[in-house]
Prior knowledge:
Number of strands of chain A: 0
CATH class of the largest domain in chain B: Alpha Beta
Structural class of chain A: mainly alpha
Number of helices of chain A: 19
Largest sheet of chain A: none
Helix content of chain B: 25-40%
Order of helices and strands of chain A: HHHHHHHHHHHHHHHHHHH
Radius of gyration of chain B: 19 Å
Largest interface: A-B, 29 and 36 residues
Strand content of chain B: 25-35%
Strand content of chain A: under 5%
Order of helices and strands of chain B: EEEEEEEHEEHHEHEHEHEEEE
Distance between the termini of chain A: 11 Å
CATH architecture of the largest domain in chain B: 3-Layer(aba) Sandwich
Radius of gyration of chain A: 23 Å
Structural class of chain B: alpha+beta
Number of domains of chain B: 2
CATH superfamily of the largest domain in chain B: von Willebrand factor, type A domain
Helix content of chain A: over 70%
Shape of chain B: globular
Number of strands of chain B: 16
Oligomer: heterodimer
Number of helices of chain B: 6
Amino acid sequence: MVRWVSLAALVWAAPASGEDCQTAFAGTTASPEHISLVEAYRNGRPLRLGAVRAAARLGHEALEPFVKQLEPARMGPRSHPCIEAVALLHTDTAIHHVENGAWPKAFGHFELGQKLSRKVGQRFQRDWALAVALYYQGRIFAGDEEIGFREATALFDDAVDRYPADTEILVAAGAVWEWSGSLPLGESDHLKRAERLYRRAIEQDPSLAEAKLRYAKILEKRGHFEEAVQPLDELVALEADHHIIYRARMALGNLAERRGLPEAAIRYYRAAIELEPDWQIGYLALSHALHTTSEREASRAALEEALFLSDSTQSSWWEYELGMS
Amino acid sequence: MTELSWMVAAFIIQPQIPLFRATTEIVQVDVYVARDGRAVLGLGASDFELFEDGVLQELYLVDAQNIPVHIALVLDTSSSVTGLGLSHLRDAAIQLMDGLNDEDEAALISFSHHLKRDAELTRDKNRVRAAITAVESYGATAWHDALFVGLKTLENVEYRPMVLLFTDGMDTYSWLREEQMLPLVEQSQAVIYAIGRKERLPMELGRGHLARDRARRDARTANTKRTRLLRKLTKTSGGRFIETDTTENLGPIFSAILAEMKTRYLLSYQPREPIREGWHSLEVKVEIRGVNVHARRGYFYEKKQ
């Protein structure tokens, strides 16, 4: 599951206060219809595209004027849950506009969502920033790479400043810079930024498996093969998620090949396959390593295994690019 | 051909082909000779000179037209090959199937970030045609990995193995790195033809939001990088790299490659010196003015373990 569904988690996490929005919005310019929509949104436990669902009831065109009038200056409510609901409504409306290619409208709603998020508690602010940054990160892989990268890094930079010890933000921010720096034409400075963020995350929490994996991969990408081994060795000793351990074993195999140790690489690849026998890339790596050691029959057999497998969503590149933990 | 690396074969006899003992190590070199872009036909063994590690060899010319081609089609079906582009690709591949002889064999490998062998090496062209028709596009591009699969598919083929690779983007997902590709090609006996559609955006998933100047600059750099590698790999194998702006040209390009395959020469010789392990450079010359000779640049010999 990709990370941008995190907005759903945000909605679910919104506190269900006893205060209703009718009271909170009393004396504002919000009409009863607006307030009902916010109420429905707050209490309805909607999925990520709550706005789309609301719009399905009201029609998309009808949704726009409702949301427009829920601007902070006009609203002035004191109820955090209601503000949170409105912030999320703006955010989901923005997402709806992105999916229709209407970026200027989307930016306006994201901006309002951000302003509203800052009127409520720290936790909500932090979650909002992370969720929207991750959403933008997701857009990179949905074809909006420049906007996605620019907006995600802007939000992450701000979030890193505001929450410098937050490991989830540090790792997620690092992943965007890592993606950019790893492109065939990527800039090495981006890899260095990612490396610094991962190192900070590990300093905060040495048991952070994903940060260790990503840190090691950055070192490898920058040609520091010997240094990259240690964090991976530490990682495989942790009781971490299968997917992360699998990737650590694959990375160790790759490093072994780069260090001229094909036999060790073969052992790592076999160990990785044991962990995730339905993922294609392990067999491909094994097949190539066996090929280089002149074990041609075994190499072909491993490749046959690879080609037998169907694509696995979990093994795919976007799981790594969008964050795993 | 288990104990020898590529190209060094225990030759199976055909009546019109010079007779070799089955235990003899024979080297075959698949050669294309062209002048002004057209095949030069009617050459005999005496028209060629072949040097292995600088030593002139005594050649036999095998009638290549009587020897079946074994072709692995390795086709990019990532998300950027969609709609009309995918349709052009399918049509071109089916057209190529139509031009193969009954004895020729073909396999289909399609790739995105995932690798699929849609049809194993077979004489049954209908099976391959059906597989071509069924390919769908999605995902990222991993042509390094796919080329490895193509070469492995042909590893045990004794005669005329060829890979036809089509890709339309930079490699964004392969496990195999750029520097790992050349050794694979050197160790294979396959002749590789590669067709690359020019990169339109620096990241293949782009929709046009990138700043135009940067996009153009990056696209040029991406093309140069990919082109350089594909040119190097195809040249090393004795094949060719063809770049195109549009998938509309794929039909004529595939047809031209097929015609080239049909007009290649197959040179054969028994090395004068006992073959040592390792790389052996090859140089093929034709004593006719103005011709271009496409032949692999060497072979890698490795004894059975």
